[in-house]
Amino acid sequence: MKKIFTLAIAFAAITMVFTACKKSNGNNPTEPEKEGVYNAKNYVGQQWVTDSTRVGDELTGVPHAYIYVKSETMVEINGYDDEYKIEGNILTLRPNDEYPQKLTILSADKDHAKLSMPGFGGDDVPGIVYMTRVEEPQGADLEVNAANIAGKWRLMYFTRTETYYDSNHQQHTSVLKHAEPGESLFDFSNDGTLTTTNSLDVIWGAEPMTGWWMLQGNKITYATGNDISPAVQPDQISDDSWQMVTKLTKNVMNLTYTQTSEGNYSSSFVYLYYFVKKK
User: What percentage of residues in the chain have a pLDDT greater than 70?
Assistant: First the structure.
């Protein structure tokens, strides 16, 4: 039951995908949607992530949902597909199930939105889910250098792709996707220092974390913490601490790295971290 409830909360975030302003379609920009009426077809292909959920006076990081709108009736949430339908400002989750769930779209613009889910906090206290649209890469790929990376970036979500072989030597692949709890910011300074903050941590009184970062070709490494020395040299860093910069544009940076394990069942994990540059 707990698993079903948690997944339902993740589905609540789907609604935000459909509440932003309409997109242009080629040379024929669409008209704004009528107030309280939303059309799923205008949001196919978009990615969204949850920022936080508020229950009464308390702010939480869950559900950390990553959402990709695959079609007018199907979305991917944290790597798994499911169905939905929208009528007016009501989103129905799993409309063909015996017990579908209805959620209400509260407000939205092209980049942010929020939704109400009744009973999230128990005793009929609604949960208010906040969400942000994930920008797609804009412009040409940039050279991987310190000047192009320096600046403030938000870590939007990560993807973990696992490939493993069973006892019959059959290959299997599983994909996990998750947003970050809160707004995680990484400030890569030109002098090689790094400052990280999280919106939820700030609310709860935590101080920003400081550290360092460096490049070696198209690889990057960074660390934060009280015991981190900014004088560390590249030859002192283990190979598995470096991440590949696999995408760098004026607004998007992707970092990837691979882990492998040996044992009864060999497996490998490929991690991708999706950053968007803050304006």
Answer: 79
b/e string for 152-189 if b means 16 or more Cβ within 10 A?
Answer: ebbbbbbbebeeeeeeeeeeeeeeebbbbbbbbbbbbe
Residue 235 has pLDDT above 80, yes or no: no
Tell me the two tokens of residue 194: 């790094």
Are the C-beta atoms of 135 and 49 separated by less than 8 Å?
no
80-107 pLDDT, tens digit each: 888 988 888 888 878 888 888 788 888 7
Higher pLDDT, 251 or 16: 251
75-79 contacts at long range (C-beta below 8 A, 24 or more positions apart): 75/14, 75/17, 76/177, 77/7, 77/10, 77/11, 77/13, 77/14, 78/10, 78/176, 78/177, 78/178, 79/159, 79/174, 79/175, 79/176, 79/177
How would DSSP label each residue in 153-182? EEEEEEEEEEEEE-TT--EEEEEEEEEEEE
